Structures are given as structure tokens and as C-alpha cells.
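User: Please fill in residues for this 318-position structure.
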């Protein structure tokens, strides 16, 4: 029969404190792997913690097992795809005021990464957080997988047939069709819209943006007679005074303006000077050389004073 000692002193004293072997049953069998059991079959706290550590490790290893997926070779392999090698495609990203030329990295036809296109003369390899994150929309399991009618998914062919029939009935009866879109920058998309208008007479096309530049267009129409949105060259400006315009964050073309502005922020060269006048802290304000906080009601007075100084300086030079 096996004998156990409570400690090393009991063993050296000749076994005065020996105890008989204790049968190990049930869960005690696993506990015996990490330490000696007490005479009543219980274990110490140290042995319990050892067991917990072992259990957590086994659980973590078991959870790492994933579903077995078999690789099936192409029956007719595409010419441009080599398994295991990435392909890169030049494209463009447009989302509201965000525009940039991009390069999309793909593997076996699946886009996995977006970077800026260094060949773009506008954004110069620049991107935004929205452009980088847009790749996740392709793999969003919560997005709609098919068209729906009254909350019930329907087939694409069925949906297309019903929509075309309804459009034809409205056009034949002399009704009005409104095509509501964001601002369109693509000539090919504009051509498709013109074809749609020709196919369904009476169609009205209304471009609408959540962040509109209509006030800028109207101001230029009143002042210069041309209803347009001007383009700015921050890389050519030595002094920039911005009143509430977050041109590095959300205003007009932030990706393009960020590249222009940052090109003149090299300490080894002549740097530009940015003065940001605003109410709330913006991305542009956090990068300004001087930030002046004002109330929204003070913007008009600030602009009038700036205009007065510019006109006064111009007259004094002449």
C-alpha cells in the first residue's frame, strides 16, 4: 500500500505522520494530476487554481477549432488570377464630398484592402477613414442580400419587371417621375441618366446632397455671375485664413486639400501659416498654427472685418 507524507519533515522523521492511500474517484482523479489529495479526498486552493488554469487552456485550444473548408481548384482558371498571389486594380471612391483615386488589392477576386493611388493627380495617394473602411461593406452580413417588397425578399427578375411596368404606366399616362440622386461626377453615369429620361418622358432629375454646397454656388452667382463651386490650391497659399471651413475634415474635398496643405508643412522648406476661426473644435482647427474660437453669431462681423482689412491694404498699395 502506498504511503504519503504531509511534508518533508514528516518523511525525514521516519514516517511518524504517514497516512494511508486514499481512493481517487470521480473528479478527484483529475485533481490528483496536479497535487496530493487530503485525507478526506479534498484538495487545497493551490491545486484548485492549477485545475482552473488547465481547464482554461483546454477550453481556449478547443475553441480555436474552425470549420474545415476544402479548396476546390478552378475548372477553367481565369487568366489574370494566380492562387495565392494578389492582384491590384485602379478605381475611384466617391462618397458625398469624399473623392479619391484608389488601388484595390484582391485575392482570388475578393477585395481585401484599399490604398490611395499614387498616380492620381488630385488626391496623390491620399485616402480617408471612410474610404479605408468601405471595404467592410462588401462583407457586411447585415446588409440586404436581395430586393424586398413589403418586407419580403423577392427575385431580381421579378423586381425589375414590376418596376419597369410601373415606370411605363406612369410615363404613358403623362405622370411625373422624380429621379433623386446625390451629385454625380461620372460622365458615364450622367449618360445613363439621360438615356433613362429619354426612355421615360416627364422624368425630373434632382441631385441632392446631405452636405450641400448650394450656398457657395449662389454666392458666386450673385458676386461673379457664375453658379459654381470654386477649386482651391492650398499648396500655393502662404497664409490661410479659414472661418468655420473644416477643409481637412469635411469641407468640399478634404482628401485633396489635406494633401495640398501637408505638402507645405515641411520644416526644412517655407511653411504656410494657418489661422482657423471657428466655434467648435474641428480637425482643421486642431492642426492650425493659430486657432481663434468665436460664437456662431460673430462669424458675420469677423468676415466683414477681414474684408475691410483686405480692401484697405489693396487701396494703400494702389
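Assistant: Residues filled in for all 318 positions:
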Amino acid at each position: 500500500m502506498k504511503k504519503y507524507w504531509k511534508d518533508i519533515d514528516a518523511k525525514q522523521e521516519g514516517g511518524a505522520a504517514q497516512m494511508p492511500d486514499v481512493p481517487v474517484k470521480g473528479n478527484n482523479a483529475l485533481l490528483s494530476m496536479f497535487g496530493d489529495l487530503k485525507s478526506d479526498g479534498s484538495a487545497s486552493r493551490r491545486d484548485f487554481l492549477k485545475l482552473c488554469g488547465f481547464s482554461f487552456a483546454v477550453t481556449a485550444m478547443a475553441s480555436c477549432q474552425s470549420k474545415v473548408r476544402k479548396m476546390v481548384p478552378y475548372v477553367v482558371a481565369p487568366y489574370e488570377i494566380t492562387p495565392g498571389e494578389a492582384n491590384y486594380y485602379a478605381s475611384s471612391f466617391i462618397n458625398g464630398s469624399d473623392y479619391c483615386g484608389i488601388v484595390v488589392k484582391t485575392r482570388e477576386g475578393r477585395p481585401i484592402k484599399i490604398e490611395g493611388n499614387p498616380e492620381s493627380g488630385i488626391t496623390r495617394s491620399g485616402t480617408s477613414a471612410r474610404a479605408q473602411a468601405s471595404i467592410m461593406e462588401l462583407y457586411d452580413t447585415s446588409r440586404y442580400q436581395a430586393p424586398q417588397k413589403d418586407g419580403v425578399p423577392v427575385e431580381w427578375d421579378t423586381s425589375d419587371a414590376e418596376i419597369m411596368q410601373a415606370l411605363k404606366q406612369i410615363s404613358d399616362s403623362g405622370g411625373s417621375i422624380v429621379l433623386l440622386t446625390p451629385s454625380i461626377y461620372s460622365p458615364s453615369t450622367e449618360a445613363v441618366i439621360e438615356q433613362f429620361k429619354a426612355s421615360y418622358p416627364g422624368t425630373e432629375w434632382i441631385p441632392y446632397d446631405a452636405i450641400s454646397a448650394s450656398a457657395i454656388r449662389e454666392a458666386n452667382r450673385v458676386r461673379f455671375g457664375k453658379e459654381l463651386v470654386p477649386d482651391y490650391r492650398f499648396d500655393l497659399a502662404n497664409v490661410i485664413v479659414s472661418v468655420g471651413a473644416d477643409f481637412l475634415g469635411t469641407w468640399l474635398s478634404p482628401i485633396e486639400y489635406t494633401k495640398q496643405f501637408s505638402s507645405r508643412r515641411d520644416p526644412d522648406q517655407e511653411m504656410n501659416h494657418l489661422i482657423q476661426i471657428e466655434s467648435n473644435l474641428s480637425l482643421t482647427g486642431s492642426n492650425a498654427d493659430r486657432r481663434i474660437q468665436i460664437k456662431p453669431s460673430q462669424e458675420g462681423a469677423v468676415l466683414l472685418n477681414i474684408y475691410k482689412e483686405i480692401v484697405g491694404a489693396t487701396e494703400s498699395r494702389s
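For context: The mean pLDDT is 84.
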